[in-house]
Design a protein that fits this description.
Helix content is 81%, strand content 0%. It has 1 helix and no strands. The longest helix is centred in the middle third of the chain and has 101 residues. 0% of the residues are buried.
Length: 125
């Protein structure tokens, strides 16, 4: 209820010093004022609730944008990891090729050294 001057939980009802009661025109006027005040109070409360709801929606939109940015970051990180794995796979393959070449060259070296030793032994005889 809106604040309404003169209203209390307990009220003494008497006819007053003159013995007069409220006339219908006075009661209608006070009811009309109260209704107008109550209508204004309800409109203000509704406006306040609408503003709170709009603020909550805006906060939700901001949170959604944060989630989109977070998912963009996660996507970029995932792509970085995939790229890094591909580079590592290339490096492993290159190392394997180098080892194969080295073992081939090493075998050639061993064959040539064996030939050299054989020729040396043949000369000594």
């Amino acid at each position: 209820m809106p604040p309404y001057p003169g209203v209390a939980q307990v009220m003494e009802v008497n006819k007053g010093a003159r013995g007069q009661t409220a006339t219908p025109s006075t009661a209608e006027a006070s009811n009309g004022d109260w209704e107008a005040e109550y209508g204004a109070y309800c409109a203000a409360k509704e406006k306040e609730l609408d503003e709170k709801e709009e603020a909550a929606k805006e906060q939700h939109r901001v949170n959604e944008n944060d989630n989109v940015e977070a998912s963009d970051w996660a996507l970029q990180y995932h792509n970085y990891c995939v790229e890094k794995e591909a580079k590592l796979a290339e490096m492993v393959e290159e190392k394997a090729n180098e080892k194969a070449i080295a073992s081939t060259n090493g075998a050639d070296w061993e064959v040539e050294y064996a030939k050299h030793l054989a020729e040396k032994a043949a000369k000594e005889e």
